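Postdoc handover notes: sequence design on the structure in folder B. Input tokens:
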């Protein structure tokens, strides 16, 4: 099973409030449709998600929603973030529907419960039922009630990590604006043979693979996110995905650019695009379109 996220920086202009990239959204919907047609003989279940980009993040940053909600103004902001996230979700769902993808939206705020910023509960039964009937669930980053903070925000990656405990996911694909995880530090000199050296990167290079073993070397040079991102930017996404593969060592994650036409279809078909995140080098699996049991 595949989880695919369409990042907020990909489907919106994160520097302009409430600004969708409609041409990109419709192209991505068609790429997902094309993959489904390609896989008609060996269908693989898929769950989609999307970030909030310039819709939810701008309001969330203004009200500090991620850190907690404790007064009337904060709760008005909580509601504003919810409405903004739902507005973008409707745009994405409509584009998928128009492309012929049988999508059905599930807003995490309807059932999510957090404790001090950590997602502790999400009703999975309706999502599982949708998959059983051949539908394509669509989740998103959203607000959530929190037993400690009052309210908070859960990212799509956090929703994916929770669902990975309940659904037979093998591949998590994160389509964003950049071509992968960039690092910007110079290689240290080493007399060791190339295959014996730890990971060494050129300035502004895309990291080909991140594992639990090389993350300490990489993380100091991984950047943040362009525009407002209350869920932490790229470094936070990588940490979330490393936590996911640590808990589920057979899962493979890819972070790649969805701005490159055809890249989403290529990633869904198992082609090596962007940065791969795995528990260890021995944990890699076959491409995501290999038939799996739902």
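Designed sequence:
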């Amino acid at each position: 099973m595949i989880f695919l996220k369409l990042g907020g920086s990909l489907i919106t202009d994160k520097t302009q409030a409430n600004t969708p990239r409609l041409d990109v959204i419709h192209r991505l919907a068609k790429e997902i449709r094309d993959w489904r047609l390609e896989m008609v003989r060996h269908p693989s279940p898929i769950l989609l998600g999307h970030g909030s980009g310039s819709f939810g993040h701008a309001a969330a940053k203004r009200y500090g929603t991620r850190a907690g909600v404790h007064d009337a103004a904060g709760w008005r902001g909580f509601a504003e973030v919810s409405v903004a996230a739902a507005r973008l979700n409707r745009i994405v769902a409509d584009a998928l529907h128009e492309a012929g993808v049988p999508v059905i939206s599930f807003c995490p705020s309807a059932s999510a419960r957090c404790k001090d910023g950590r997602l502790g509960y999400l009703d999975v039964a309706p999502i599982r039922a949708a998959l059983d009937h051949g539908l394509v669930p669509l989740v998103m980053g959203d607000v959530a009630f929190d037993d400690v903070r009052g309210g908070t925000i859960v990212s799509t990656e956090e929703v994916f990590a929770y669902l990975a405990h309940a659904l037979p996911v093998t591949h998590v694909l994160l389509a964003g604006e950049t071509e992968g995880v960039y690092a910007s530090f110079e290689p240290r000199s080493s007399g060791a043979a190339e295959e014996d050296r730890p990971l060494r990167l050129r300035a502004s290079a895309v990291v080909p693979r991140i594992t639990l073993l090389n993350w300490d070397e990489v993380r100091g040079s991984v950047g943040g996110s362009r525009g407002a991102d209350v869920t932490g930017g790229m470094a936070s996404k990588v940490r979330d995905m490393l936590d996911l593969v640590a808990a589920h060592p057979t899962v493979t994650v890819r972070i790649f650019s969805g701005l490159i036409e055809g890249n989403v279809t290529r990633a869904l078909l198992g082609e090596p695009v962007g940065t791969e995140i795995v528990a260890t080098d021995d944990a890699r699996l076959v491409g995501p379109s290999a038939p799996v049991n739902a």
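Context for whoever picks this up: Confidence is low (pLDDT under 50) at residues 185-203, 289-294. Don't rerun without checking with the PI first.
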